[in-house]
Amino acid sequence: MSEGVTPTGPQTPLQQAGRVSAGVFSLIIISVIAFFTLDEVTARFSVIAVSALIVLLTQPAAKLVLFERAPWLGYLFDALLVAAFVFSTVWFYRVKADLWTGFYIATPMNIAGGLLGVAAIILLTIRAWGWSLVIMALSFVAFGFAGPYLPSILKHFGTNMADFMQIVWYSFDGVFGRTTGLVADNVLIFLIFGAVLERTGAGESLIHISTALTGRIRGGAAHAAIVASAVFGMMSGSVAANIAGTGVFTIPMIKRQGFSANFAGAVETAASSGGQLTPPIMAAAVFIMADLVGMPFAMVIAAAALPALFKYIGLFAQVYAEAIRLDIKPMAKEELPVLTARDWLNSLLVFLPIVMLMITFLMGKSPATAGLVGVLTAIGAGFVLNPDFRREPKHIWDALVAGGISSAQIMLAVAVIGVVLAVINETGVAIRFATAISGWGEDYLIMALILAMFGALILGMGLPTLPAYLIIAIMIAPAIIKAGVLPLAAHMFVLYYAVYSSIVPPIAYGCYVAAPIAGGNPLQTAFVALRISIVGLLVPYIFVYSPSLLLVAGEFSWSELAITVLRLLAAIWMFATSLGRADPMLGRIVLGQSGVRFVIGLGAMIPIPMIYIPALILTLVAGLFSRRLGAAKPA
Questions:
Q1: Lesser CB count within 10 Å: N end or C end of the chain?
Q2: Rounded CA gap, 372 and 487, in Å?
Q3: Can you tell me where the transmembrane regions are (predicted)?
Q4: How far is the C-alpha of 629 from the C-alpha of 512, rounded, in Å?
Q5: Cβ atoms of residues 250 and 224 within 8 Å
Q6: Angstrom distance (rounded) from CA 599 to CA 596
Q7: What is the pTM for the complete model shown?
Q8: Which structural domain, as residue segments, surrounds residue 43?
Q9: Is residue 223 within 8 Å of residue 319, measured between CB atoms?
């Protein structure tokens, strides 16, 4: 949400109309998947138009700080936006036939129509997501027009307003391009799915069960929060939205067990970010990735499994080490929730819809159909298993409204990404960028990967997962593929850093959501989140050099997988005890020993036998040494 929008206060009639529109939008999405096939051009334009209307109504200009002294100017501004979009709609459909035949001719009127449509979408995207995405898009637009005047490395033929409008508005490469269709067809139903799951009571049941299962471990409340945030994070299209939704429950729970405010916020942020990388849904990015790499969805989901597993093992280990350092004991027996048959039955609120969704996938159905099955199963499970949900059918409507609003916001972001992609295709900058990075990769692949990592972190800052991945996949993934990386590994690599941009300073937008809930400092929370996410930040390098971790057919080796698993386990343990400054057998450890363990952990990560074999041996020696010293300590 844009900072200028007032999030509280009574709903105006227009906002109420926006909520109704959002609920109807969700019903239309469900109905189209279940019963209809639409003309592709009409479908893409309609979904963008409806999304613009929903954002305009639910976040009216009259509520912006800019118009707080004169709300009537806000309503006038919105009326002008509506008029501009209607004008652009008229001209879009006037030239619709020409779009198919390729006989589009620029005229002053249709140029004006396209310009007004793009301007309306950009202004509404600022309300939905703030300035980050729009600034990036406008930078690319400026790059497109300034081509002839740029330095030689960036110089290109440039564009003019007529050509720009053709590629951005009146073609299938820009706002209404293939990416818009792909997201509308496959992703929106999963945003509705996540909203429905949240309102069936699935979240409370999951936190309750997770706390009971992990409470006997030191730092158990934080472990329970990781599980809950991971499950709901994989269904959310926004790290910030997931933190806001689950963090209000999990962060106070972590603090009550004795962890600091900054650490509690960091755990929630790291877990919610990691949820975007967790199969089978991966914040719906899995469907875009499968399409871009030309692989079955099931194969991409399988490839994501082991990296996600080790990412979470690393996070659990960091929390455990922190609990040892702070001498946080397991939860007292009387504090542990007592699980009943009803609790286990309620767990089906989470797992039954996901299982049914996966079964539908494995039957060969489309992602949209699988998402629809998940939505219907979640609603059915809520009615059968949750009496409150059954007594209050309004929860279904609330879920549809929330899913519709999320869908509208995502579609506007994708529309703006379409502007960027059109400029990229027209100028050839992605090819030039790929050539520059692959030049390093021919001799120094690690340098190409580091450049790609920083590029992904910078481009992804402040963006929700899906738009961040889309732009980075077009700009950067081809570069490291050209440098010799497998396509699936390359796309997984950039997705990881697109997601982790949410915890990287100075933007670290996920931490700016978590810190106020925790009562901590956003920047300090970001640095703690980076520390405890070290395995997740490094695991992409592991699967690039050891693709067997992705279970990729044709590049798979059991021996490579076994060695990679050992290396990761050693690194996880060394990093946890080093950065947490604590060992289970020794308690707190000194700075020098912490530094040695960090070096050993890095050595285990490096895919060179002469380095990782000694690191594995030293990890074993350190474990035996700690065990012996710990046993010798007086009770």
A1: C
A2: 29
A3: 20-38, 45-66, 72-93, 105-126, 132-154, 175-197, 281-306, 344-363, 369-387, 399-424, 444-461, 468-489, 495-515, 527-544, 556-577, 598-625
A4: 42
A5: yes
A6: 5
A7: 0.82
A8: 13-185
A9: yes
